[in-house]
Amino acid sequence: MSLFDLSGRVALVTGGNGGIGLGLARGLAACGARVIVTGRDAAKNAAAVAELGKAAAAFQADLTKPGAPEKLVADVLALAGRLDILVNNAGTNIRKRPDIVTDEEWATVIDLNLTALMRLTRAAHPALKASGHGRVINIGSMLSIFGVAFSPAYGASKGAVVQYTKSLAAAWAADGITANAILPGWIDTDLTRKARIDVPTLHDSVLARTPAKRWGDPRDFAGIAAFLASDAAAFVTGTAIPVDGGYSTQG
User: Fold this and answer.
1) pLDDT at 193
2) How many domains is the chain built from?
3) Closest CA to 114 of 157, 67, 62, 159
4) How much is the pLDDT for 170?
5) What is the pTM of this model?
6) Is 129 exposed, middle or buried (0-12, 13-18, 19+ CB in 10 A)?
7) Which CATH number covers residue 77?
8) Residues 65-86: pLDDT tens digits?
9) pLDDT value of position 132
10) Residues 6+ apart with CB under 8 A from 126
């Protein structure tokens, strides 16, 4: 269907070498986009590129380093000549109650999940505007809707990501750029497998509350990525869409 055809467009997916990021990248590639992923692990980057196809590429980057977001945008433009779709997926979490989280741990989460995201998006603005149909897709969390005791910094960062997305939508609509957030629920990834070790009751409580009665899979994100990046979503901006099997509908 032509509305979902991303042929000729270039997408940058941060943290796109595994988990939810790779699920998003798969959806974009399946619709014809040239996908460029970033991640700190060179071996995972190479594996992702091999899966995504010969047009795909990867850059090893730590986006919290000074100048790294700006350099990444420059590298993408040097390689591909354009940037149409920016997916801000890279993130981290430190699971500690609010009364024991340290300043350093708080900064680690906020620096990557929020500040680096802002810097990369700001750096990408000229290229997204030049594309004529720029798309920003930010990965928030269902923890922007409600809180849990063990993720104060993560919840704060993801709540801020949603509000930042709304600001982008308001500011950049005149530039032909849409900005939307995806709010993942409990997804089966390396991070959540560790969470199930740290919080032994988590698995059963997630299944009990999720109407779909399963954990999400990274492949569940291919469709939402393709939709928000496409012309089919040209009039969709400033939204925050849960992809959580109905978890956030339960009071």
Assistant:
1) 87
2) 1
3) 157
4) 98
5) 0.96
6) middle
7) 3.40.50.720
8) 999 999 999 999 999 999 999 9
9) 94
10) none
Matching residue, tokens 């990408």: 124
Buried b / exposed e along 131-162 (16+ C-beta atoms within 10 A): beebbbbbbbbbbbbeeeebbbbbbbbbbbbb
Closest CA to 56 of 82, 77, 28: 28
Residues 117-133, mean pLDDT to the nearest whole number: 97
Quote the tokens at residue 246.
Answer: 């109905």
* Enclosing domain of residue 42: 2-249
The residue among 199 and 8 whose pLDDT is bigger is 8
> Which of 154, 164, 215, 221 is flagged as catalytic?
154
User: Strand, coil or helix: what is 56?
Assistant: coil
For residue 40, CA distances in Å to 1, 14, 27, 91, 139 come to 35, 10, 22, 12, 18
Q: Are 139 and 20 in contact (CB under 8 A)?
A: yes
- What's the pLDDT tens digit per position in 92-111? 999 899 999 999 999 999 99
- Residues 231-246 have a mean pLDDT of 98
1 pLDDT exceeds 70? no
The residue with tokens 């979902």 is 4
Given a contact cutoff of 8 angstroms between Cβ atoms, the answer to whether 54 and 111 are in contact is: no
For 107, the token pair is 């900064």
Task: Write the burial class of residue 42 (CB in 10 Å: 0-12 exposed, 13-18 middle, 19+ buried).
Answer: exposed
Q: 181: phi > 0 → left, psi -120 to 50 → alpha, else beta; which?
A: beta
Assign 191 a pLDDT band (cuts: 50, 70, 90). confident
Catalytic-residue membership of 154:
yes
Chain mean position to CA 13: 7
